[in-house]
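User: For my dataset I need records formatted as: sequence, then structure tokens, nothing else. Please produce one.
Assistant:
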Amino acid sequence: MTTELWLNFLGIRLDSSKIEGLEYVINLITPDNGEEYVVEVSNAFLTNIKGQRAKDPDLTITVNRTDLETIMAGTATFDDLIKAGKAKFDGDRAPFDKLANALDTFSPNFELMPGTCQEEGVSTSSETPFAAEEPADTSGG
């Protein structure tokens, strides 16, 4: 998954009711591949712009893309990478924490039509809120 697709996926997972009225800007920089993103939360919506860097962000996150993949896979957290010296936060961490707490986790068994969901009480919390769940095995084996 590209960084841009992952950021778009985070926008889909965002519960807008949890960030209503909040506005902040985060720069995401991945030096090993030269990518830069402006991630903005405004009007209870998350957007990102590739190839840009905000002049006065609330927070700048610097992490190598290869290390970001461990976060995407759910095998590490940003805090793990910060402790290991593999990620750096410059600025106010509060926007990051608010974003992490506003992400929902979707079940692949969601109800398409009323009465079709066989799984009760699907959890929307996760210890690694930025991770995407592993897709189901469709190999037929």
